[in-house]
Design goal:
single chain; 155 residues
């Protein structure tokens, strides 16, 4: 029993200062300690948040780059055959047009010759005279052009 009494007195002695009032200086020290710990926690939390955001930004940038490259690849995969087909169709149409023009010229010559054969000898003579006259005019104009070219080069 003495032991219990002694321990009770000891515990009361130890707990007695805790029942006393805190001074303003003590309160200020407690506030300062709490403020420092809260600031340290806030800084740590901000650092963790910044790292998390940077990691997420890098992940999004990688995905965006991958999607961009994929879209460019698909455009090339679709665009190149379309361009090749367009060029082939254009080349074929040019080739067909050239062949049609050649056929038309041949038909026209044949028709002109047939019509020429149907003309009377008098009409043929008139047409041949007109052709010779036009050939002469073309030759005169060609000579004039050549003389003008020589005058320009001499000047």
């Amino acid at each position: 029993m003495k032991m219990i009494l002694a321990l009770s007195i000891l515990f009361c002695a130890i707990a007695l200062p805790s029942l006393g009032e805190l001074s303003d200086a003590d309160l200020n020290r407690i506030r300062l300690i709490v403020k420092e710990e809260v600031n340290a926690e806030i800084e740590s939390f901000e650092k963790d948040i910044k790292e998390y955001i940077n990691t997420k930004n890098e992940s999004v940038e990688k995905r965006l780059s991958l999607v961009t490259n994929l879209i460019v690849g698909l455009m090339a995969l679709i665009g190149i055959p379309l361009v090749v087909l367009t060029v082939m169709i254009g080349w074929r149409s040019i080739k067909d047009n050239a062949q049609e023009t050649k056929n038309i010229k041949e038909l026209t010559r044949e028709e002109v010759q047939e019509l020429f054969q149907e003309l009377t000898p008098k009409d043929r003579g008139i047409i041949e005279a007109l052709i010779r006259e036009q050939d002469g005019k073309i030759a005169n104009l060609t000579q004039e052009i050549e003389s003008l070219k020589q005058q320009i080069t001499n000047s």
